[in-house]
Amino acid sequence: MKIKWFGQSCFLITAENGTKVLTDPFKNMLGYKLPEIKADIVTTSHDHADHNNVNAVKGRFAHIHELGGFLEKGIAIQGVATFHDKVSGAKRGKNTVYNFSIDGINICHLGDLGHLLDSKQIAEIGKVDILLLPVGGGATIGASDAACVMKQLHPAVVIPMHYRTKALWVFGFLFEKLDKFIALSGFHVTKCKELEIDTALIKNAQERPEIVVLQYD
User: Fold this and answer.
1) Other C-beta atoms within 10 Å of 138: how many?
2) Which residue, among 164, 142, 153, 130, has the nearest Cα to 23 in the 3D structure?
C-alpha cells in the first residue's frame, strides 16, 4: 500500500491491486494545489470547501459521505459520527471519521475532528493501524488533544495533517505548527514523500510506534 499527502486532509491511498482511495479533496483556496487525479473511491468527512471538492476528481468513482458500513472494490469502510467542534456541532457542524480496511491494514482518517472521542466512538472506529490525525488546532483538535486521541486509538503509525505549512502562506496563522504535537507525542519521527507500507512493517511499528511526516505535493 502507498499513502500520499496533497495537503490539508487530502490523501491518496493506493492498494496493492491499484485501487485508489482519495480522502477530503479540497478547492485550491489555501495555497495547496490538487493535481488532476483519478480515484475509485472518494470520501468526504464534512461539507466544507477545503474537504469536499469531489468535482476535482476525474473518472467514475464511488463517493462516500455518510455514516455506516460500506464495501467498495473489496475495501471495507466504516463511517463514524463525530463533531467538528467541542460543542456537539453547534459551531462547525458534524464530522465523519472513516476507517478503511485495505490490504489487511486499517487506516483511520479523522477528518476535521474537533473533540476527544467517547467510548462508543472508539468502539465503532475499531482497530487502527495507521491514523491520519489533525493536529493544527483552530477548526480541529490541536496538539494536546491530538496526542490524547492518539492514545485513545493506539495506532502503530500516525500521519499528521491539517497543520501549518509554508504552502498556507498568509493562512498559516489559522493553524498550529507540527512541532508542538511531535514534542507531546514521544514517538519516533520519520519523514518521506510517500509512505509505502505492508502488514510486516505495521507489525514492527506496533512494537515501536512512530510518526510519519509526509511531504505535500
Assistant:
1) 16
2) 130
Domain tally, the chain: 1
Mean pLDDT computed over 54-71: 95
Taking the CA atoms of residue 115, residue 119, residue 124 and residue 125 in that order, the dihedral angle to the nearest 10 degrees is 50
d(CA 111, CA 149): 13
First to last CA, the chain: 18
**Mean of the per-residue pLDDT values of the chain:** 93
Task: For residues 83 and 111, give the distance between their C-alpha atoms in angstroms, rounded to a whole number.
Answer: 10
Q: Is the pLDDT of residue 146 over 70?
A: yes
Return the CATH number at 119: 3.60.15.10
| pTM of the predicted model as reported, rounded to 2 decimal places | 0.95
What's the domain range around 26? 2-214
